[in-house]
Amino acid sequence: MTADLSLIRSSFAVVQPHGTEVTAYFYDHLFAHNPGVRPLFAPHIDEQRDRLWAALGALVANLENADTLIGMLQNLGRRHVGYGALPEYYPAVGSSLIATLAHFAGDAWTPEIEKAWVEIYGVISSTMIAAGETAGETAGA
After folding, report:
1. Residue range 4-35, pLDDT digits in tens
2. Is the Oxidoreductase keyword given for this protein (predicted)?
């Protein structure tokens, strides 16, 4: 992993006090820019916002624990296939995540922080997509 993990942790610490406002903004951004993904979610997504917030915190907390992190991401990837998530949705999610983090980090957001998040999101999404594809192959067999 090439992402600067200290930048991931420090920037998340800046965003963290905003709590689930972060995930509310994320979903608003995602649905406004990618309305085609809205049907994948329940009409009321308060519980989903809480789950996303918990997952983000767990991911950041486990950045140095590769086995735990990979296991979490693989589980998420397998579950997301069941929700109808397709690999082509991941870039939209990443774009909304970066926009959300930048919004809440404000002046603390830098090009270096954005680069670190883009890199870590690449690892997150590729791991989830691979696990989802494996789950799909197993289910179809």
Report:
1. 999 999 999 999 999 999 999 999 999 999 99
2. no
Nearest in space to 27 (alpha carbons), one of 13, 41, 15? 41
Its domain, for residue 120, covers 5-140
Q: Which residues contact 86 (CB under 8 A, 6 or more apart)?
A: none
- Determine the Cα–Cα distance for residues 110 and 112; give it in Å rounded to an integer: 5
Beta strands in the chain (DSSP E): none
**Could you tell me the CATH number of the domain that includes residue 72?**
1.10.490.10
Q: Which residue has the tokens 């179809």?
A: 140
CB atoms within 10 A of CB 141: 5
pTM for the predicted model, two decimal places: 0.90
